[in-house]
Amino acid sequence: NSYEIFGTSAYFNRSIYLGVTPTTTSAPVGVVRRFSYAAPGVLTSQGFTSLNLTQQQPQNTRGTTPFISANGTNDGILWTIDQGQPLQTPDPGGPTSATLYAYDAANLSSVLYSSSTNSVDIPGYGIKFTSPIVANGKVYISTGHDLTTAASPQGEIDVYGLK
User: Residue 83 and residue 57: Cα distance in Å, rounded?
Assistant: First the structure.
């Protein structure tokens, strides 16, 4: 087994999207693997797609939980969060900001959105196992506002939507 799974999967149009984290340096670095159904209830080996997304999860991180938003069976968007070095990390480099990504769920070949593109969109510090939530035309993610060494550390909810 070259990968670990720390989240749940997402389903859209007969495909399952699963966030994975490599456990060895020989495993391809990845974020999401897509499994497509050839027929109802039949998962084929040809349906497995190894996705080379811009967002990467290095070895020994906690992966990502994908989330799908769509207009019925059309216009699917795959949302993922890169927690960076989350608040709970023992890494001496310290925590870093999270990044929210959006991909076209049909082909995952291009990034539709990255919160790291504009400085006003950069969320707070990453939190392990956080998942994006989509509701009312907006995307919500939980992040940390303060370091855990602060006297009364606080979190925040970052909200993304059309302006």
Answer: 9
Residues 6+ apart with CB under 8 A from 148: 87, 88
Contacts of 139 (CB under 8 A, 6+ apart): 69, 79, 100, 102, 132, 133, 159, 160, 161
Neighbours of 107 (CB within 10 A): 10
* pLDDT value at 145 more than 70: yes
103/75 Cα distance (integer angstroms) = 11
pLDDT (tens digit per residue) in 20-52: 777 777 766 667 777 777 666 665 544 455 454
In this prediction the pTM is: 0.81
